[in-house]
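Schema walk-through. Below, the input block comes first and the output block second. Nothing else is stored per chain. Lengths vary across the set, and this one has 344 residues.
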Amino acid sequence: MLSEAKGALEAWMRQAARADAVSLAEARPLSGGAIQENWLLEVDVQGGPFAGRQDLVLRTDAPSGVAVSHGRAEEFALLRAAIAAGVTVPEPLWLCEDPDILGKTFQVMRKVEGVALGTKVVKDPRLGGDRAGLAERLGRELARIHSVLPPHPGLEFLGAAPADPALADVAQLRAYVDALGEPRPVLEWGLRWAELHPPPPPEKLTLVHGDFRTGNYMVDETGLTAILDWEFAAWGDPARDLGWFCAACWRFGRNDLEAGGIAPRAAFYRGYEAESGRRIEAERVAYWEVMAHIRWDVIALQQGQRHLSGAERSLDLALTGRRAAELDLAILRLTPPEVWRSAG
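--- output ---
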């Protein structure tokens, strides 16, 4: 893709960087999520504030993008809001919405060094430095994300904050299940439980990352280098992010380490409470851990259906679809009949 548009991209970057000339020395694809396409750019810049060799990352939407995820323009705005709140993210440099350059919107950010792959982060103790310290740092980072409140300039695309985030999520997930067009009794069971046991709306709705977990942050040998992947950010209950991070489905086999498979939950909570000044409600987080398994179950089925329908043949999508069975089991374990109580 980039080789065919090299000249147009260089000309655009020259203007964006306020440079005399820009030469694209190398462009190679990077691994990334299923909903965005990432390219590493090695760029030589002559003149202007970015003069010299620059290692950059270009992000644009992949063909397999998810309809409810944010595009690159929205991600650019979210990264700017995150930086203003003190969150450690890759610096967003330039946004291009001109389809004449690459045929679609893209953004360019500074390259950040580190490893993000969840299985590697969990299994390699050389990454992330002190693990309790890493979990505490992540708690602080999440609290800074949650310091962004609606309404917020530049984030109007997020829409109005829901009056009841829990029930709004239940309704959204039920609509997704209905759209699958096949019986999913475990998901119906889980959604009914969630509908009967919602926590009251929080005192404050905040920006929630929406996918804050091991696998979506980068670390090197010393610690955290960046929080990644803001495609599902929204206004909501901050406990949703806490539950997603601690959910068993995102521990990559280290169920003994409840904070993302890297540390005890207490370290993560300690950092969050110290930065936010708010006590974490354990029962509220537990609810959102159940919802995390339901949401991931639905996403797995949606991704698997993309493959099975022929819309996009992909081994990764097919394997993701097979995760639904283990997520069904996790939902049943989290919502056995003895934990049901009267809604009235």
